[in-house]
């Protein structure tokens, strides 16, 4: 094994997206990740299809695209942790692990004898991360958390979508599970920080991650717009609350993004667009004035931008250093020369399909490059191996557990 975290073992009791996203990142960085799944069904997202991966005969497998997106590089062990035998195995594996991640409801791990307080007695160096919708404390701590609900509660949908006074106006969720993904990212950062602290203290610690907390934090500058001004931000569609012009415009054959970030860029845009007078107009000469007068300026710019195709705009604007670009669909994104050059699509060997496509990790290291060791695992693919090697169990013990339905 290679990678920056090749010395780290992660015991992963998470499913769906937030937790698996965190553990997949750790796996990409070289950690050994052992994913514990329910016997028979496994991670919920295995059934979240179609689409499913095709086998070499073109037939659907049980591997959903959703599951494949978040479980690369892991080992799958099927284990019923509601049984005393299953709990004993988890404790044995935790004794040999550096990191423990779970996203069960608050209190479940304590009922199973697998809480941080239980496991730190066995392994004081263990970094234990719990991922829930609302955290371990507070009036909603017992509630289940779902990304869609969190996007609504945490303010994201209040600023996402077209303006209420325009056709199609109203709240929108993002096209991906933003709260889950951000929670996975924050969780992995927290785990790495706890591991680094362990080098100094010699002890692990407990990490309490909540989707709602993360969503609130991730509102970033929109939070500060409100906290500083007292004015509640509203939906702006594809426009920016603090910068103009910084939005989607229609061209003669489609759409483009124009993202003018300063007054110098605005002047360059106006020269290319054949309307230099706008850059010297007092109403539009500074960004602050452009924001104040956006209702006047934007229609004027839209009329100009309709006179050329997207490509006819993007090429000269890029050459002049004015940020702009087309709006690609996902197929066009993967065909883009820059995306291809950065090798953002990788193919991994897979026992059923021959190969499975995967999206590369965006981190580029000079000394410990990302290694794509294995495709997302089949359900229970590594149960026998992990229990016999790491768990120290004989074949007869493993067979007895399998016959009993524990694994």
From TrEMBL:
GO molecular function: transferase activity
Keywords: Transferase
Record field: transmembrane: none
Record SUPFAM superfamilies: CoA-transferase family III (CaiB/BaiF) (SSF89796)
A UniProt-annotated Pfam family: CoA_transf_3
InterPro entries in the record: CoA-transferase_III_domain, CoA-Trfase_fam_III, CoA-Trfase_III_dom3_sf, CoA-Trfase_III_dom_1_sf
Protein name: CoA transferase
Source organism (scientific name): Massilia solisilvae
């Amino acid at each position: 094994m290679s990678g920056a975290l090749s010395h780290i073992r992660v015991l992963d009791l998470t499913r769906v997206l937030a937790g698996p996203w965190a553990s997949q990142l750790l796996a990409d960085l070289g950690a050994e990740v052992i994913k514990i799944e329910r016997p028979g069904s496994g991670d919920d997202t295995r059934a979240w299809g179609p689409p499913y991966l095709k086998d070499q005969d073109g037939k659907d497998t049980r591997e959903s695209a959703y599951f494949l997106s978040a479980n690369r590089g892991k080992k799958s062990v099927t284990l019923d942790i509601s049984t005393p035998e299953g709990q004993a195995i988890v404790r044995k594996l935790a004794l040999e692990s550096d990191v423990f991640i779970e996203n069960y409801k608050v209190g479940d791990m304590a009922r199973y004898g697998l809480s941080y307080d239980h496991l730190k007695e066995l392994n004081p160096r263990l970094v234990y991360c719990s991922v829930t919708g609302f955290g371990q404390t507070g009036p909603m701590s017992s509630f289940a958390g779902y990304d869609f609900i969190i996007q609504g509660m945490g303010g994201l949908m209040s600023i996402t979508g077209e303006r209420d006074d325009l056709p199609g106006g109203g709240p929108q969720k993002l096209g991906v599970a933003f709260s889950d993904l951000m929670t996975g990212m924050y969780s992995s950062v927290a785990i790495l920080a706890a591991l680094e602290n362990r080098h100094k203290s010699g002890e692990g610690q407990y990490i309490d991650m909540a989707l709602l907390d993360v969503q609130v934090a991730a509102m970033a500058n929109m939070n500060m717009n409100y906290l500083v001004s007292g004015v509640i931000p509203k939906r702006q569609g594809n426009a920016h609350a603090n910068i103009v012009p910084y939005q989607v415009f229609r061209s003669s054959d489609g759409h483009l993004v124009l993202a003018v970030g300063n007054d110098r860029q605005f002047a360059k845009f106006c020269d290319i667009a054949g309307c230099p007078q706008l850059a010297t107009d007092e109403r539009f000469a500074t960004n602050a004035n452009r924001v104040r007068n956006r209702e006047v300026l934007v229609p004027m710019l839209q009329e100009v931008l309709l006179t050329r195709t997207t490509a006819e705009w993007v090429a000269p604007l890029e050459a002049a250093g004015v940020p702009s670009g087309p709006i690609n669909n996902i197929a066009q994104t993967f065909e883009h020369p820059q995306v291809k050059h950065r090798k953002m699509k990788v193919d991994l060997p897979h026992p059923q399909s021959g190969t499975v496509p995967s999206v590369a990790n965006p981190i580029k290291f000079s000394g410990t490059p990302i290694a794509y060791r294995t495709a997302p695992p089949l359900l229970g693919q590594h149960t026998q191996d992990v229990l016999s090697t790491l768990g120290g169990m004989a074949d007869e013990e493993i067979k007895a557990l399998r016959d009993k339905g524990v694994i």
